[in-house]
Structure formats: structure tokens, C-alpha cells
């Protein structure tokens, strides 16, 4: 028992039933018992496995609690008895088990939580398919929905998780030897759930899930112990992307590095500036993200103004072992002007992370950064005009004051002029003003006047400081103006993107909505997404996929702007030329448009393939199921007729009669099968004739009992004569009830015969066919109405599974319904609901009313 107040949980995790989880759990219990630990068995299910049952020897077992539910008895773990016994360790199998209604907790993992809270250590077991997060993935792989589920947090919170592993081949051998399931279930299991592909996929899921859990534990340990250094437990390769053309080369190189190490991870990261002002090409980034994901990696985006620091922080947080960077595109002259680049700084500060500097074709081909502001040309012209006009005007005004102002006041006045010019025209007009102002101050206001000679060092220092301050102020003002304009631009772009995303999500025709939003956002007269068609070997042929507004061009080069979305898709705009920043934003829209085209085509392909797949599935099931049912009656009838025609054997009258009866029964079975198939096909085609009329429910009873033959004696009939008339086709309703009763007879115990009864509820009359058989799980109730489905059957000796599918179809053809319910005390109740004659006003489409018909 744990000394810390709360017990410890140890879980054995398996990929599939039969890998040995319970065996390992009991083995651990035996080991601890031999060590002197107080161990009890709270609940263990051996499933009839001999070797597992042997492991219970010597272990104290807490008696189970018996619960009655719907007339049947079930056993569950007696949690109160375990708590009263207070062992040090409790062995509790099947962590994901759902308790029988009436238990204190709904799930067994909740029982285990109580034991842990009481300070009792628990050892349990669970299969990977029961974890909530991957339950849907398992269903896609195996085709079997899992009803028993346990939250991942319960398993992740375990103090110890041990994987019980076994290769698919070894597990199938165990199955074939009868060590997992009973002999009569082995073939079905090997051919369905226990296929090699299923087991391999489940095994991989278990290994990956446990590896992620181990990795999370490692990260937690490193965080708790303030370990910043990289632990090379697994190769993690981080590739830095800028959205440049060299990105694809870097990604493929990083993927090859990761592939050299088994289990290596590939992570791509793009560092965006904190102010959102980035020169990255969004189209390129989207393409590179797709490439990363295709190569099995993950894409991340972090924010940081110091790119080397942001890269290394991300790499260390992910416990990366290697970092891949592209060689700088800047020229040597640019490096000399602006200092060391990102690669050099990253290598210097990388510590124990290996940095790969990958060369590419664009290295060193950059130019010096362009020194330009971000103000409009009109404002720059206004600034230069002020730069030329303000110094002489200010000199004239200051000269009118005579000697009342000293040099300091004059310098401050010209500094004010520099700031005004900087606010209007930016840095370069302000620099012109500063230079002109210094010359004017030197000529007019600095002794000796009317000369550029400065007599006093103090005046020379004042002019020098004026020039430096003017340059600094003008630079700051210009940079602030640039940032303000860029921020406003970024805000406008963000708003446009947000509006675009909202309109696309709300609209039913996403691509036209996207093009219309682009056209409106950029003030264009027309927008169109064109696709290249390779119909002509000499010239490119383009066809429009969607358009908005008015567009007169038929080829991309005829438009005012063409933005490639990918090799064969171009977004063309007509109205005016785009600026460079606008082209970058439209590039993101073009990438989105290409994704929408791909998504639409995939949806269309899926929609076209679905009917074919359903038809193929139905045809395959038909051939598989009907094969036996056609051969069996034909073979029986043929054998009987051949025997009768044989001259080698003298048959007695009794034997001849028996052979004729066998042939007659076989042909009747064949006739019913063909009738069901034809009726089902007519139902699916919507051409089954339905002749409804007002009728009493007890009219169908004689026909139903007659069709059941000798089995009719096993049916209890309790249909009140006071039921209102229903609007139905007597022949079809008779077939519905006969099919349901035939199923009920097949599954009902001999001592508990099926019951047919009826009741009225408003404008509906319900016929209930009640049996006391095993029932149908809720998850399978829709499947039993699909053609060629027989739950629990492993052969075709009882029919091809058309009965319930045909019964529901016939009921719905008469505006009725057929639904299953649980029988109180155990079993299944099929409820046929038919509208009364007064409630039925509109005839069934395609039906012909027959008045005056009698049966």
C-alpha cells in the first residue's frame, strides 16, 4: 500500500486481445506475493484460457458482487469488499469495462480511482483500441466499433505503463492453437479482426502512443529538473524556413537527415516578427508546409524579433538534436554593411545542437538593402519643398530679431524645422534641411558672420551636435512613419483575410465567394481562376474554373495581374496593376483557391465513388451470401430427383414420399429466396407495387401462422380485437410479420416461445414481436437492417440475411416503421408501427388503390 496517501497505478498495455496482458498482470501479482506483499484479486477475467487460470493459484480472490439486470444475473467487482479488505495491491482486469447498471460507478476505471484514493496500489490492463483518442482510428482500421472506452488521461496518469508486445504472426499462431478463443471462433477471428494488417496497425498505434507518453514524461522530467541541454534520446531535426525559394531544398535535406535515424522526427519552423511585418511569401510557405507534412514532419510558427534566439529556443524546447539552416542570400558587401547573418549567430549560440548550413543556388546573390522610406511620393516632394524653403525663411525671421536671440535659440529653431520636415517628407528631406540649416546658422548666426569660419569651439560643437541630433530625429521620425504605415497595411491585410475566411466558411460556393472577395478587396473589375489544359502541344490552353465580376481576357498574360497558385492554376485580376505588397497578399488567396479546387474535386470523386463502392459491397455480399443458399436447395432438390430417377435402387413408398418432400421443401426455399431478392431490388429501385386498404390487424394472423408451418405452434398470439383499422397492404404486412416471427423463433429458447401482440397509440397501431433470445447490442441495431447481415452467424445455413432488410423496406413502403427495442428481462422486441386508416390520407407514391378488395 502506498505510503503517500494515494495508491500507485500500473497498467499493462496491449495491441490486441490475447497478447498476454492478464497473464503478465497475474505474474506481477505472484512476484509481489512471493516478496511478502499483501496482494488480492479484485477482478480478473480468464476468458477460459488455461494458462491464465493457472496463474491465479495462491492469490486471494475477492468474491464478486452479483447483480440482477432485466431478468439475468451478472457479476462485477465488489468494490466495497476490496475497500474493506484494504490490501496493499489489488489486481483489477479490463480497465475500460462498463459496469452493469446498478453498480456504484458506470466504468471500472472509476472503481479503480476509488481504490487509488484509498491508498491501494492497483495493477490493471487495457488494449490500445479502448483509448478514447484513437477509438475512431481503430474502427477505420478494423471495421469494428469499440463500445468500451477509457479516457486517455486515466491511462496517461498511471505511474507505470508497460507494453505487452507480440508480433502479428505469433499472435495468430496463438489464436490458431486455441490459446485465445474457442475453436469454433478461431477461423472467423483470423479472417476478420486478427488479420495481419489489422494487428500490425494496432501494434504500431500502441508503440507510437506509448512512445509519445514516454517522450512527454522525459520532457516533464527535464522541466522539473531545469535541464536545458539536449538529450539525444531520439533524433529531432528542426529546419528553419523563411518562405524563400530555397525552402524545398532545406526540407528535403532535413528529411534525409531525420530518415538516417530510426524514429527521427522532422520539425519545420518559421519565425514571424512580433509586429506581424514579414516579407515571407505566404504561397511559398503554404507549399513548403504541405511538403513537410507529406514527408511525415510537422510545421510550426513562432514569433520573435531575434530570429537566431527564437530558433534556438524552439529547438531546445523540442529537445532537437540538429538544426538545418539555409546559406545566406546576402552578398559579401551586404554582410560587411549589416554585420553577421542569422546563420553565423545561430552557430555561435547553438551550444550542443548541431547546426547544418545548407548551400543552395541563391547563396550570395543578394544586394545591399534598399534605403527607401515608406511615405508616398507626394509627401516626399512636399518635404523637399519645405527643406528648400524653410531654412532661408527661418533665417529671415530670426534676422528680424537682431541680436536679441543667441545661438542656442537659433539652433533650437532650426531643429524644430528639421522635425517639421521629417514629419512631412521623411528622413531624406529632413537631412537636407539639417545640412542647409547648419550652413545658414554658420553663415548668418555664428561669429564671425558672413563666413563659414567658426571662431569659437563652443559654436562649432553646437553646430555639430545640431547636425547629429537633426539626423537622429529625422531617422526616428521616418522609421516611426514607416512602421505606422506598415502596421496599418498589416492590419488591413489581416482584416481582409479575416473577412475572406468568414465569407468562405459561411458560403455554400466557396470558390466564387473567394474570388468575389478578392475582387472587392483590391478594387478590381474582374477576378478569375484559370487552369491550364494540355490539349494543344504548341500553345497553352486555359479554361476558367470560376470567376467574379467582368473579365474580358482569355489568357493570364492578357490580364492586369496574374498570380500563380500552382503550376497549372493561375489567379488573374483585371482592373489595375498590383503593387508588390498587394501581390504578396493575393498570393495567399491564390494558394487558398488552389486548395479549394483540390478539396472540391476530392469531394466529387468521393461522391462518385461512394455509390460504386456501395454497389460493389452489396454485390460482393450478395455473391458471398447467396452462393451457399442457392447451392444448398438446388443440391438437395437435385439429389432427391436424381435418386428417384435412379434404376439401381428400389425405393419404398415411404422413402419416395420423403424424397419428394425434401425436393419440394428445397424448391420452396429457393422460391422464397428468389422472391426476397426480387422484392428487395424492387424496393431499392422504388418500383414495388403497394396496394393499401383499410384492414383489421387480426386478418393477417392466419396467413402468418400458415407460412410458418410447424413452427407456428411455438408462437403465442395476443392481438386485441379492439384495435382500430390500419391502412396497409395485407400481403406485404403479412410478410413483414412472418419474417420477424421467423427470426424470433430461431433465437428464442424452446421453453420461452415468442409473443406477437398489438396496441394503439394515437394514430398509430403497433405490432410487437417479442422474443427472449440473446438480443442485439445497441451499436449493431442499424447493421442488422442492412442486406446480407446476420449478426453472430458464421455460415449461411439460416439464410442470406435479407429478412430484416426486406421487412423494414416493406414497412416503410406502407408509411410505417420498424424499430428494435430491448425486451424487459432480456431479449429483443421488434415494433412495427402502421398508421390507422383515419390517419392515412395520402396514398403511397406509385401505389394503386383497390376498393372493395377482400382477402
UniProtKB/TrEMBL annotation:
Catalytic activity: ATP + protein L-histidine = ADP + protein N-phospho-L-histidine
Principal subcellular localisation of the protein: membrane
Record region (Disordered): 836-855
The protein's Enzyme Commission number: 2.7.13.3
Compartment annotation: Cell membrane; Membrane
GO cellular component: cytoplasm; plasma membrane
Membrane topology: Multi-pass membrane protein
GO MF, any single term: phosphorelay sensor kinase activity
Domain Histidine kinase: 625-838
UniProt KW keywords: ATP-binding, Kinase, Membrane, Nucleotide-binding, Phosphoprotein, Transferase, Transmembrane, Transmembrane helix, Two-component regulatory system
Name of the protein this chain belongs to: histidine kinase
Alphabetical list of CDD domains matching this protein: HATPase, HisKA
Organism, scientific name: Kribbella speibonae
UniProt superkingdom: Bacteria
Residues in coiled coil: none
Residues annotated as transmembrane: 381-400, 412-445, 457-477
Amino acid at each position: 500500500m502506498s505510503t503517500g496517501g494515494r495508491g500507485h497505478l500500473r497498467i499493462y498495455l496491449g495491441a490486441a486481445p490475447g497478447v498476454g496482458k492478464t497473464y503478465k498482470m497475474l505474474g506481477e501479482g505472484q512476484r509481489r506475493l512471493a516478496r511478502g506483499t499483501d496482494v488480492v484479486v479484485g477482478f480478473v477475467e480468464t476468458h477460459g484460457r488455461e494458462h491464465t487460470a493457472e496463474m491465479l493459484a495462491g492469490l486471494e480472490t475477492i468474491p464478486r458482487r452479483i447483480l440482477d439486470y432485466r431478468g439475468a444475473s451478472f457479476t462485477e467487482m465488489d468494490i466495497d469488499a476490496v475497500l474493506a479488505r484494504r490490501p496493499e495491491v489489488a489486481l483489477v482486469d479490463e480497465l475500460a469495462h462498463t459496469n452493469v447498471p446498478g453498480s456504484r460507478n458506470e466504468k471500472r476505471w472509476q472503481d479503480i480511482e476509488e481504490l487509488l484514493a484509498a491508498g491501494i496500489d492497483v495493477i490493471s490492463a487495457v488494449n490500445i483500441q479502448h483509448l478514447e483518442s484513437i477509438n475512431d482510428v481503430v474502427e477505420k482500421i478494423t471495421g469494428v466499433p469499440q463500445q468500451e472506452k477509457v479516457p486517455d488521461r486515466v491511462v496517461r496518469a498511471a505511474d507505470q505503463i508497460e507494453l505487452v508486445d507480440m508480433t502479428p504472426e505469433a499472435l495468430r499462431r496463438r489464436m490458431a492453437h486455441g490459446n485465445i478463443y474457442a475453436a469454433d471462433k478461431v477461423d472467423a477471428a483470423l479472417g476478420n479482426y486478427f488479420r495481419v494488417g489489422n494487428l500490425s496497425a494496432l501494434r504500431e498505434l500502441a508503440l507510437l502512443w506509448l512512445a509519445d507518453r514516454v517522450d512527454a514524461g522525459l520532457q516533464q522530467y527535464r522541466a522539473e529538473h531545469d535541464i536545458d541541454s539536449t538529450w539525444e534520446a531520439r533524433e529531432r531535426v528542426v529546419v528553419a524556413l523563411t518562405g524563400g525559394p530555397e525552402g524545398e531544398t532545406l526540407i528535403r535535406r532535413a528529411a534525409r537527415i531525420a530518415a538516417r535515424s530510426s524514429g527521427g522526427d522532422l520539425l519545420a519552423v518559421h519565425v514571424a516578427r512580433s509586429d506581424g511585418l514579414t516579407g515571407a511569401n505566404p504561397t511559398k510557405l503554404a507549399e513548403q508546409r504541405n511538403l513537410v507534412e507529406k514527408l511525415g514532419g510537422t510545421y510550426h510558427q513562432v514569433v520573435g524579433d531575434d530570429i537566431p534566439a527564437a530558433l534556438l529556443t524552439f529547438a531546445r524546447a523540442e529537445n532537437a538534436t540538429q538544426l538545418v539552416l539555409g546559406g545566406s542570400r546576402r552578398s559579401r558587401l551586404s554582410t560587411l554593411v549589416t554585420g553577421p547573418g542569422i546563420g553565423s549567430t545561430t552557430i555561435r549560440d547553438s551550444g550542443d545542437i548541431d547546426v547544418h548550413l545548407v548551400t543552395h543556388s541563391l547563396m550570395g546573390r543578394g544586394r545591399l538593402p534598399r534605403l527607401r522610406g515608406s511615405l508616398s511620393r507626394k509627401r516626399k516632394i512636399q518635404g523637399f519643398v519645405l527643406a528648400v524653403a524653410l531654412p532661408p525663411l527661418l533665417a529671415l525671421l530670426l534676422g528680424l530679431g537682431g541680436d536679441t536671440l543667441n545661438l542656442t535659440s537659433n539652433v533650437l529653431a532650426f531643429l524644430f524645422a528639421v522635425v517639421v520636415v521629417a514629419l512631412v517628407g521623411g528622413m531624406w528631406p529632413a537631412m537636407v534641411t539639417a545640412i542647409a540649416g547648419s550652413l545658414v546658422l554658420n553663415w548668418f548666426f555664428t561669429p564671425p558672420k558672413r563666413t563659414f569660419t567658426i571662431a569659437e569651439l563652443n559654436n562649432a560643437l553646437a553646430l555639430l551636435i545640431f547636425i547629429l541630433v537633426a539626423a537622429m530625429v529625422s531617422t526616428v521620425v521616418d522609421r516611426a512613419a514607416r512602421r505606422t504605415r506598415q502596421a496599418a497595411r498589416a492590419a488591413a491585410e489581416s482584416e481582409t483575410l479575416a473577412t475572406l475566411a468568414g465569407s468562405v466558411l459561411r458560403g455554400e460556393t466557396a470558390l466564387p465567394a473567394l474570388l468575389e472577395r478578392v475582387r472587392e478587396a483590391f478594387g478590381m473589375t474582374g477576378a478569375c481562376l484559370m487552369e491550364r489544359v494540355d490539349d494543344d502541344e504548341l500553345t497553352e490552353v486555359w479554361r476558367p474554373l470560376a470567376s467574379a465580376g467582368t473579365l474580358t481576357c482569355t489568357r493570364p498574360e492578357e490580364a492586369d495581374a496574374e498570380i500563380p497558385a500552382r503550376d497549372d492554376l493561375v489567379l488573374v485580376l483585371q482592373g489595375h496593376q498590383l503593387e508588390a505588397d498587394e501581390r504578396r497578399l493575393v498570393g495567399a488567396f491564390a494558394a487558398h483557391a488552389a486548395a479549394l479546387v483540390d478539396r472540391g474535386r476530392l469531394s466529387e470523386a468521393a461522391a462518385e465513388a461512394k455509390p460504386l463502392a456501395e454497389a460493389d459491397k452489396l454485390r460482393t455480399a450478395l455473391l458471398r451470401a447467396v452462393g451457399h443458399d442457392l447451392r444448398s436447395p438446388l443440391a438437395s432438390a437435385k439429389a432427391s430427383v436424381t435418386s428417384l430417377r435412379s434404376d439401381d435402387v428400389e425405393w419404398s413408398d415411404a422413402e419416395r414420399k420423403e424424397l419428394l418432400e425434401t425436393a419440394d421443401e428445397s424448391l420452396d426455399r429457393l422460391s422464397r429466396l428468389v422472391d426476397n431478392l426480387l422484392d428487395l431490388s424492387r424496393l431499392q429501385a422504388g418500383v414495388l407495387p403497394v396496394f393499401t386498404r383499410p384492414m383489421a390487424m387480426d386478418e393477417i394472423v392466419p396467413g402468418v401462422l400458415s407460412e410458418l408451418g410447424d413452427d407456428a405452434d411455438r408462437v403465442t398470439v395476443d392481438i386485441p380485437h379492439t384495435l382500430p383499422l390500419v391502412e396497409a397492404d395485407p400481403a406485404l404486412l403479412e410478410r413483414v410479420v412472418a419474417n420477424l416471427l421467423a427470426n424470433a423463433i430461431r433465437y428464442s429458447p424452446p421453453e420461452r416461445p415468442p409473443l406477437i401482440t398489438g396496441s394503439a397509440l394515437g394514430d398509430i397501431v403497433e405490432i410487437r414481436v417479442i422474443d427472449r433470445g440473446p438480443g442485439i447490442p445497441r451499436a449493431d441495431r442499424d447493421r442488422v437492417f442492412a442486406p446480407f447481415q446476420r449478426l453472430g452467424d458464421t455460415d449461411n445455413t439460416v439464410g442470406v440475411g435479407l429478412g430484416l432488410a426486406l421487412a423494414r423496406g416493406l414497412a416503410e413502403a406502407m408509411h410505417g416503421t420498424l424499430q428494435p427495442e430491448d425486451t424487459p428481462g432480456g431479449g429483443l422486441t421488434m415494433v412495427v408501427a402502421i398508421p390507422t386508416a383515419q390517419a392515412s390520407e395520402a396514398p403511397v407514391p406509385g401505389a394503386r388503390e383497390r376498393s372493395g378488395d377482400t382477402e
